[in-house]
Each structure stands twice: as C-alpha cells, then as structure tokens.
C-alpha cells in the first residue's frame, strides 16, 4: 500500500512539474549590439516584431550599444532599431526554435537612416516651435540638414594633377 501511495505521489508531482518545464523552455531571448556609423548607439529603442508585425518585446541599448529582449516565444522576429521620432533606422532578423531559444544579432544603422531620422525629428521640432515663436534656425537643424545631404551624396574622389608636368 505504501508503494502505491508513493508512486501516486511521485506521479502527481512529475505531472505538475511538466507544464512548468515546458513553459520555461518556451521563453526566448534575443540579444545583440546596435552600431551606427561612428560605433555603438546608446539609448536607442530596439523592438522585436513577431510574424504579424506586433511588438513582442523591446529594450533600450546600453552605452556599449548592447541590448537584450526577453520573454519571446519560438518564431522569427524582425529586430528593429527605432529613433526617438519613431523612424526605423536599422533592422535585422532573429529566429528562435524550441531547444535553441537564444539568438544574437548585430543591427547596423545606416548613415542615411540616422540622418533622415534626425532631420525628421528636427523638422517636427522646428515646425512646432516655429508655429509658436516664428522661424528659428538652430545649430541642430543645420547639422541635421548637412548630415541628410551628406548621406545622399556619393563619395567624391578628386585627383589633383600638376599641369606643368612636374611632380
């Protein structure tokens, strides 16, 4: 009788623990680094979008550009870096599968995307302040405009030749 009771108690405990083990195995993590043109991007938002485009998790990058998004289920996620103004400035993908619920990615924000996001943020700020105080030209607006223009121009290589023939 004691053996039957012991086996029944062990079976009940194992049955209760199985769903807990299954739930723990289904929790995934995507971590990585976000880089801009001049190195790591700090304090930017990174979002994991599921297959439907819904935000499944998010994080803010550290000073080193590192981030970690936890609580994800199995599936393929679009990992996107979002500027303060809400513009996507870089993206990558990560896939989590049962048994391998950890993925590491590197997201590189392009100069053009960063400049466009800065220009958009500056334009919306300038429009808001301009409506209240009149037109204002700020250093931020000038730098953003120069950055946006530079991002659209192909590099120019100039070779200066000495027309006299001497070197």
Question: Could you outline the blueprint of secondary structure elements for this entry?
Answer:
Blueprint: H1 2-25, E1 28-36, E2 39-40, E3 45-49, E4 55-60, E5 66-72, E6 75-82, E7 88-96, E8 102-108, H2 111-133, H3 139-152
Parallel strand pairs: 1-8
Antiparallel strand pairs: 1-2, 1-5, 3-4, 3-6, 6-7
Care to describe what's here?
This protein is an alpha+beta fold. It folds into 2 domains: 27-108, Immunoglobulins (Immunoglobulin-like); 113-152. The protein is 37% helix and 32% strand. The strands form 2 sheets. Strands 1, 2, 5 and 8 form a 4-stranded mixed beta sheet that branches. Strands 4-3-6-7 form a 4-stranded antiparallel beta sheet. Strand 1 (28-36) and strand 2 (39-40) form a beta hairpin. Helix 2 (111-133) runs antiparallel to helix 3 (139-152). It is elongated and about 45 Å long.
